[in-house]
Design goal:
The protein is α+β, with helices and mostly antiparallel strands and about 70 residues long. It contains three helices and two strands; from the N terminus they run ααββα. The chain has one domain. A hairpin with a 6-residue loop joins strand 1 and strand 2. The chain is elongated and about 50 Å long.
């Protein structure tokens, strides 16, 4: 995943050490945490085969390409 280009990877690489106002810090924190364990989520398990998967919650921030891309699709 190190070579994957995403907003989360870009923020993780270039955000440390940057001076941001509180609003931009909050937005960047939401974008960084989006669809990760830090946002929480739910575990789904199949009653028939016992397979399970975890679905993490999105941040739903208007600046987030993951959340707004999904909203645009719907």
């Amino acid at each position: 995943m190190a070579g994957t280009l995403s907003v989360q990877n870009i923020l993780a690489r270039f955000l440390p050490g940057q001076t941001l106002d509180s609003h931009r810090r909050k937005v960047c924190a939401r974008l960084t945490d989006c669809r990760t364990a830090r946002m929480g989520g739910m575990e789904m398990r199949c009653d028939h085969c016992q397979a399970h998967s975890v679905c993490y919650y999105g941040c739903r921030d208007r600046h987030c390409p993951q959340c707004q891309g999904h909203a645009t699709e719907q």
